[in-house]
Amino acid sequence: MVIQVIEEPVLFEETKWQKLRFIPEQPIKLRIHLYGENSSFQAGRDYLYDEETSRIRRTKNSRIPDWSTHPLYGKESFNHILYNNYSNQPYTCVVRYTYKEFEEIEESRGKINKFSLSQLFQKIDNKEKGKYVVFGDSISAGYEASASDKAYPFLFWEWIKRQFPKAHLEIVNHAHPGESTRGALQRVEKAVIQEQPDLVSIAYGMNDQTRQVDGTNAISIEEFRENISTMIQEIREKTDADILLFTSCLPNPRWVYTSENIEQYAEVIRSFQPMKRITVVDVQKEWQKELKAGKKIESLLLNNLNHPNDYGHHLYLVAIKKALF
């Protein structure tokens, strides 16, 4: 059990009570500010906190934005194209506090599974420069993160440096917004293989699952599986890179372009776990855990559609750690 600092995104709805994700540590010190801004709100004037239940709410005359006034609040099967303002950013607050982490991930260097990333750790052990290629869509490109160093590839690199202070890793981000695995296959030679990386992360599925007008997916599950398999085969045949294979986070289920079978795409990714030097990072599992604990899916998606906020990117790092220990 360790003490952790969390910056939890919260969408305050009218004056309704809502439970924080964790129980703040004593003495309780909450700092609440708007996403991407430094100014903070005041206890009593802007919000009330119930220590016994770990619940928080807006006051009646609060300066905290009321999410219930969002143009898409309560709407089902909405099409964002029909609205000028569909983002959650103006309504997303960040609650900063400390808490006791009971599900501790052992992060000592002696516990990390170096076999999973043998090529990378060989470079680290030999004090050589390693190369990490990020291959994916707009999520991997860091869209909606408040800064480039808040996106998951850079969170991962910062974590590696904390574990191995002398590590030297070059990050090459070749993620392409709006891309599915079909487009990725056309780019894999130039974007990945020609870079000759030591580590590649492959993170697709969000655009593949996109619901079409006729109810089908943009890329069928069968083609998705074949595309991922072909990418892996080409990378393994032409490079020495280890591969981190990500399941996708979850989009807003109220968005008209969210399919009903997105979890099946995650199952495709999980099916590659037994392959040598393939490490599956199950992001979707971590998101499902957050939702089960009571987090609103909208509080994890800054654009209200499919792009994680900083906390959502943090969940990617949590999934990486769990995959490597």
Could you explain how this protein is built, in words?
The chain has two domains: 100 residues, no CATH class; 211 residues, SGNH hydrolase (Rossmann fold), CATH 3.40.50. The chain has 325 residues and is α/β, with parallel strands linked by helices. 28% of the residues lie in helices and 19% in strands. The model has no long low-confidence stretch (mean pLDDT 94). The chain is built from nine helices and eleven strands.
Amino- and carboxy-terminal Cα gap = 17 Å
How many helices?
9
Beta-strand content bin: 15-25%
Going across the major beta sheet, what is the strand order?
8-7-9-10-11
- Rg (CA only): 20 Å
Poorly predicted runs of 5 or more residues: none
Elements, N to C (H/E): EEEEEEHEHHEHEHEHEHHH
Give a short account of the largest sheet.
5 strands, parallel
CATH class of the largest domain: Alpha Beta
Structural class: alpha/beta
Under CATH, the topology of the largest domain is which? Answer: Rossmann fold
How would you summarize the topology of this molecule?
Blueprint: E1 2-11, E2 18-19, E3 31-34, E4 47-50, E5 55-58, E6 92-101, H1 118-125, E7 129-136, H2 138-141, H3 152-163, E8 168-173, H4 181-191, E9 199-203, H5 221-238, E10 242-246, H6 262-270, E11 278-281, H7 283-292, H8 297-300, H9 310-324
Parallel strand pairs: 7-8, 7-9, 9-10, 10-11
Antiparallel strand pairs: 1-6, 2-5, 3-6, 4-5
Helix pairs in contact: 3-9, 4-5, 5-6, 7-9
